[in-house]
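Hi both,

Apologies for the delay on this - the queue was longer than expected. I finally got the LXAUTJHC-bound model through. Below you'll find the protein sequence and the ligand SMILES exactly as submitted, and right after that the structure tokens for the full complex including the ligand.
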Amino acid sequence: MTDAQVVVYPGADLLAAACAARLVTRLVDVQAAKGSASVVLTGGGTGIAILEQLRRSPARDAVDWSRLDVYWGDERFLPAGDPERNETQARAALLDHVPVDPARVHAMAASDGEFGEDAEAAEAAAAAYAEVLAGRAVPEDHGPVPAFDVLMLGLGGEGHTASIFPSSPAVYETRRPVVAVRNSPKPPPTRVSLTLPAIRRANEVWLVTTGEAKADAVALALAGAGEVQLPVAGARGSRRTLWLLDRSAASKLGRVYQPPLS
Ligand SMILES: O=C1O[C@H](COP(=O)(O)O)[C@@H](O)[C@H](O)[C@H]1O
């Protein structure tokens, strides 16, 4: 993964605030150039902290929220409003506080929704989300997934990203953009996730994480580990891949990535 850029911040709070500022800048620039923009949100502690910082930032008003498409990289297949759903957390952190167009907020289905809770429900939810993506793709995207402007991802200490876990069926998926995930090693067991081929349709992929528990996975991914054992190693954007880390998450990288001592 030679073309990835790495930015290391002194701490988790500063990283979240800086990522929020970076996101405002990127979305404003894209809207100025194209009229509208798209962002794919991640769940997890760092991803939600970024949204909270964005809510608190006066600069958030620079974004035209009505001209933004919001997607998710993965979802925990739980009832609507469940506090563990990535959508619930993103709404509380940001989306309920800014004038987004509800029709452009593309949440993945809930387990008490139209597809029900049975064994096939998560598969149906994944297929439905693939249809949503296909419906939003334009000819210039050259495929059934939009070329997302910014796609943010967290990661697990064992190397999962979105809900693509090491050596799981999702990491081998080459055809479908969205899959159901069963028996996730991290609760809840049933999830819906973009696949690596869909993630790689994004113009920019931002990998955001903090804490020492992520340091091995970060170092291995940047050293070129294989994506089957370490799915996050397969996450990259078509134009840019950015790793946004705090010092702890970056602590096992070589000196080249370390910030100067202060
Ligand atoms: O379950 C999930 O976890 C990962 C990482 O979360 P973190 O709290 O350890 O940073 C997240 O990227 C993913 O979206 C989420 O569903």
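Main takeaway for now: The first strand starts at residue 5 and ends at 9.

I'll put the files on the shared drive as well.

H.
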